[in-house]
Fold Superoxide dismutase.
Amino acid sequence: MLCRAACSSSRNLVPALGVLGSRQKHTLPDLPYDYGALEPHINAQIMQLHHSKHHAAYVNNLNVVEEKYQEALKKGDVTAQVALQPALKFNGGGHINHSIFWTNLSPNGGGEPKGELLEAIKRDFGSFEKFKEKLTAVSVGVQGSGWGWLGFNKEQGRLQIAACSNQDPLQGTTGLVPLLGIDVWEHAYYLQYKNVRPDYLKAIWNVINWENVTERRIPQGTNKLLYCSVSECGLFRYLINTM
């Protein structure tokens, strides 16, 4: 989809990514808690490797590919621009997804959401338990690597559950605004839960930061977007607008 969008019109492509020339490099965000804060549900070793190695790699690779993309733009090399798009999508998506994921978790999390979010969940899924079962099933059922998501459909004003492969960003792929993401890549759980993904899903509900999920929800009738800081980068807008 990225390739089709880029090839259709260089006029649309350049403004979307033109900000890359003046941008600051992406940086790895600090976690809002210690690596061991989510134990026993997610151990410190997993959190340290996941954050300082895996997420850091997405950030570093994103900076590299954006530099190459900037050079291709300056040269007017459309072939190189198209060739770089899978790496932009993968590493940009990895940075976006993980920046959301860390804030979706909290050592004081778990339980049920409150207020309008809980009412919206009951309206759109029947009950909180039914919602929990559905998102768990979708996340466990991801073939290979990917993410399970709770998203907000702006057009319908309703919550929806979706799965994305690899590091495909939810909004760029489906149009849904990301509220809650569950990483089901093996690096997110294998050192603790081995190949038993359902056990990891059962555990992660104990550390879901419902306050953060609530803050990300877009109330019906508004246009306010609540994202992590990477929402302001040109790549994020590009992935949303062209996929």
